[in-house]
User: Fold this.
Amino acid sequence: DAGVTQSPTHLIKTRGQQVTLRCSPKSGHDTVSWYQQALGQGPQFIFQYYEEEERQRGNFPDRFSGHQFPNYSSELNVNALLLGDSALYLCASSSPELAGGPLGTGELFFGEGSRLTVL
Amino acid sequence: GNSVTQMEGPVTLSEEAFLTINCTYTATGYPSLFWYVQYPGEGLQLLLKATKADDKGSNKGFEATYRKETTSFHLEKGSVQVSDSAVYFCALKGTGFQKLVFGTGTRLLVSP
Assistant:
């Protein structure tokens, strides 16, 4: 059973460029969340997708956008890259029972991440 | 808003030593609490969780008890191994919210 897979694993961009990161959730999961983990810090929530819609968003600018496809996979897009966007970007998947709402326990399954370096 | 504070690292221990990593939280309502672990070169993995006050989460010899009176969820292990070397993150999920709020992480280094 494949877990959460992310691509690419590493990439280097320059300021002002745009980047797209991809995520395939664990089998049976339909909810995808994205987190940014700066060096030496804990992951910070970017947004969550369920049923192809953004369900909740963290404190990130509109340069960060996402999409979820009918097969539950997801993309994270970042426009007009800044040096400060350099980080490990983590995708996490879950099922509705685990993830959301008052009954959800919040358990997430993480991928290994995409490390973005902006020069 | 909700937040998590955990002790700074690195924590350096010899094999078979006792481990405590402190974690306190600020949240409204009744959050669920988690410890995630990140081994070198790997993604975060759920280590244990507790969803209500006085619950004890446990896994792989690690334990943590949800203490609402002290707003704490300290991680403990009686005898650490070299293979426990990793970064440990305390996290919470607030009532009705979708996201996890993480602490900054504590690096544990265990030497033989």
